[in-house]
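User: Hey, quick favor. My workstation is busy. Could you predict this chain's structure for me?
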Amino acid sequence: MDINQVTLDVRKIRGKLSIIDVIGDITSFAEEQLQTAFNQAISDGFEIVVWNFSQLHFINSSGIGLLVVLLVRARKQNIRMGAFGLSNHFKRLFEMTRLNEVFNLYETEDEALSGLLGA
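Assistant: No problem, here it is.
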């Protein structure tokens, strides 16, 4: 099994907001990459992290658990979290796992920026 199933690119945006572009699969193999991307996203005092899931191919229960760990950490550090680009399948998964109640969910990047930055 290929352990490099995900690529995470961090973009620093105006207003202390970072976007993490997720390309591939989120499984237990992505733990270190997720932690590294999150740390990069909140470095330099950035206070909002938005996950771009438009190129998410797969997420399993371990991947959901990793996101929950990051959400707990974000809350402890007063970091706001959002997400956009979820397919209908992943939206239903977020609803079943109740992640939709802790992530601010948006359809597009522009909507996420507007909603989280108040623009």
